[in-house]
Amino acid sequence: MTQKSPPPASAEHEAAHAHSTLCPIARAQVIVGDRWTVLVLRELFLGNRRFEEIQVQTQATPQMVASRLKKLEAEGLIERRLYSERPPRHEYHLTPMGISFHPVFLALRAWGETWCKGEHEEVAIRYTHIPCGQDPGLGPACQSCGKEMRREELSARLSGSFDAERRERLQAFKAGRV
Fold this sequence. Notes:
Layout (H helix, E strand, L loop, with lengths): L10 H9 L4 H9 L2 H11 L5 H8 L3 H14 L2 E7 L4 E6 L1 H4 L2 H14 L9 E5 L24 E5 L1 H17 L2
Helix pairs in contact: 1-2, 3-4
């Protein structure tokens, strides 16, 4: 007799389970534990605040982006700000809670740069640590001056190949639009 696998857990079930534990990792995972949410946050950290910019660079469906933005807003990581009344259009801005995710973002970046790339691939996002004017490395502390890498003290520059990838993605998106 073959055993059936249990049905996948619903988002409500996962949220209820996370709140039934004292484990902060389980609780955080419910909020930011999927690929699309982390990619939406990446775009916000890179300064893309509009829906279309986020959709293009994450390559998620409009429904996926909309659901992640709603979830991040409901959880308090972002806020919507109206920038056009006719038609109503919003930008998405990180709240203090969202900004505090930055060290996690830097840790994911460092891990990905270290373990998920070929040895001849360049670093995708280079930072300048504004207080000392140097490349801070992969963090969490600046390799030059030793200070903590804080979001407001970093200036990001995309590598040529990563910038080209993102421009190509935007052009392909625009070409596909009616």
